[in-house]
C-alpha cells in the first residue's frame, strides 16, 4: 500500500487532526503518501458537505488509478445516505482498493463487502489521533498499510469475520446494503448508548443474524447513567440474547471507540 | 368494553398514577371496571419485574374470560423481550380482546397484529396521567372503551393503518414480530432522539417498509440539542426519505408522547 486517499463520507474532520496524522505519517512512514481530500473539512449542518459532495469525493478517491486505499476520516453518521449510490456507480478502479474505517462508516464497509467491491477493513480512522494514545492507533493503520500483518485484532481465528458498531449494524440489517454474514464471526462494539438501548439493539441484530458463527463483544464505552440501573452489564446482555437465539457467544474483542481499536479485515484474511 | 385489565410489559408504573386513573374512571366512567395487576408496580432493575413475571401478568390479563381489554400501563422498553413467548402461547381467550398502548408497547401491538390475535390499538396509557392535560388523555381512552368512536386520530382515511414510535418500529422491522404493512398508512412519532438519529431510523424503516400506502408524522418532541445543527427538521427528514424511496408522505398525525396523543386502531377501523 503506497498511496492512501482520505475522504469523509459522514461528518467533517478538523484540519488540525489531518495535519497531525500527515506529520506522523511523513516522519515515520516515508513509503506511504497520504492525501486528504479537501472535502474532509467541509461543514454543512451535521455533514462533511451535502450528500452529492461527499459522494463525489468518495468517487474521486475510489476511482483514482494510482490510489491503493481509501481511508475514511471520521464517522459520526451519514455514510448510509451515499452508500447505495456509491455501490451502484463505483467504477472498475474501485474494485482493486482497500477501504478502511469503522463506526458509522461500517455502513460503507458492509455495503462494499456485500457488493464484493475491493476489501473492507474495520480500522482506526484519522480522527482517532485526538484520543489518548491516538498516535498508536494511527501508527497501527499506517503500519498495516506497510505490511498487511500487524495491528490485527488478536482473536481472528481463521473464520470469516466482520466488525461493526452495534447501532450501525442495527440500522444496516435487512437493508439493501447488508452483506450476507452466514458463517461469520461478528464483532460488535458500542459507545454512548444506555444499557436498555444496547439490549434493544442486540435484540434487533440477533433477530436478523441467522447462521452466523458467533458474536464477540468489543468495548462498550461511555454508557450514560440512566435514572435507574438496568440490571445487566453489556456482556450479560449479549450473552442473554445469544443464548436465546442459539448464537455462540465467543467472548471479548479488541475493537471499540478508543485508541486500542484493532484492525479487522472483513471476510477471510489471506 | 366493560372490564379492562392493566399490566406493564415493559417498565413499572407508579402507584399514585394508577390511583389517579382509577379515581378518574370511577367518578366519570362508572360502566367501566379498571383492574390494575399488581405486577404493574414491581421494580426490578429497568423492568416491571423479570421477563417471566411480566409475561405471566400479561397472560393472566389476556386469558381472563371476563376481561374485554388489556391496557398497557407504560412503555419505556422491554415488551420485545416477552412478545414472542406471549404470541406463541396466547390462549383462545386472548383472541377476543382489545390491546391498547403505544411507545415501547408498540412491539406487542405489532406482534398481535401480525398474529391476528385480538385487536391492536395505539392509545394513551395510564402513565400519561402525569402529563400536562393527562386527564384528557385518560378520558379519551375511557371514552373510547365506552363508545369505540371518539378520540380517534382525525386523519384516519379508511385505509388500513398502524401507528408506532419510530425507534420501536425501527427495532421491529425484519423481526419475527413484524406485521406485514403493505397498503397501510404508517403513523410514526418520536421523543428524545437527536435529529441525526431520527434520520438514521427513518432510513432503516423505509428500507424495510415496502409497498406501504404512505407515512404520516406525529409529534417529534424533546429533541436534544446536538453540538451542531443537523440542517433539517424532522418533517424535512421524513419527506427526504419518503421521496428517495417513492413512499407517499401524507402529512402530520395527531400522535406522540403528549396528552394530545390520539387513538389509532390498527388495520381497518370498522
UniProtKB/TrEMBL annotation, chains A, B:
InterPro entries: Carboxypeptidase_A_C_sf, Class_I_gatase-like, LdcA_N, Peptidase_S66_N, Peptidase_S66C, S66_fam. Residues 165-270 form the LD-carboxypeptidase C-terminal domain. This is LD-carboxypeptidase. Residues 4-116 form the LD-carboxypeptidase N-terminal domain. It holds the Pfam family Peptidase_S66. It comes from Qipengyuania xiapuensis. The lineage of its organism: Bacteria, Pseudomonadati, Pseudomonadota, Alphaproteobacteria, Sphingomonadales. Keywords: Carboxypeptidase, Hydrolase, Protease, Serine protease. Belongs to the peptidase S66 family. SUPFAM superfamilies: Class I glutamine amidotransferase-like (SSF52317), LD-carboxypeptidase A C-terminal domain-like (SSF141986). The keyword Protease applies.
Amino acid at each position: 500500500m503506497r498511496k492512501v486517499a482520505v475522504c469523509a463520507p459522514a461528518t467533517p474532520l478538523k484540519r488540525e487532526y489531518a495535519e497531525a496524522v500527515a506529520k506522523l505519517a511523513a516522519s515515520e512512514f516515508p513509503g506511504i503518501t497520504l492525501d486528504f481530500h479537501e472535502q474532509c473539512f467541509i461543514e454543512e449542518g451535521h455533514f462533511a458537505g451535502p450528500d452529492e459532495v461527499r459522494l463525489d469525493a468518495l468517487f474521486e478517491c475510489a476511482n483514482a488509478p494510482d490510489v491503493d486505499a481509501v481511508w475514511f476520516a471520521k464517522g459520526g453518521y451519514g455514510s448510509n445516505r451515499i452508500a447505495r449510490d456509491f455501490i451502484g456507480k463505483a467504477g472498475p478502479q474501485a474494485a482493486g482498493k482497500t477501504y478502511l474505517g469503522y463506526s458509522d462508516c461500517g455502513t460503507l464497509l458492509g455495503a462494499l463487502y456485500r457488493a464484493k467491491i475491493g476489501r473492507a477493513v474495520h480500522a482506526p480512522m484519522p480522527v482517532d489521533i485526538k484520543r489518548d494514545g491516538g498516535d498508536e492507533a494511527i501508527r497501527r493503520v499506517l503500519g498495516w498499510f506497510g505490511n498487511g500483518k500487524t495491528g490485527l485484532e488478536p482473536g481472528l481465528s481463521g473464520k470469516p469475520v466482520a466488525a461493526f458498531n452495534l447501532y450501525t449494524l442495527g440500522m444496516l440489517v435487512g437493508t439493501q446494503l447488508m452483506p450476507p454474514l452466514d458463517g461469520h464471526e461478528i464483532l460488535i462494539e458500542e459507545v454512548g448508548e444506555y444499557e436498555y438501548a444496547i439490549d434493544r439493539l442486540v435484540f434487533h441484530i440477533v433477530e436478523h443474524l441467522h447462521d452466523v458463527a458467533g458474536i464477540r463483544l468489543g468495548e462498550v464505552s461511555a454508557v450514560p447513567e440512566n435514572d435507574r440501573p438496568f440490571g445487566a452489564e453489556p456482556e450479560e446482555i449479549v450473552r442473554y440474547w445469544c443464548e436465546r437465539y442459539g448464537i455462540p457467544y465467543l467472548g471479548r474483542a479488541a475493537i471499540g471507540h478508543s485508541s486500542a481499536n484493532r484492525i479487522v479485515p472483513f471476510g477471510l484474511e489471506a
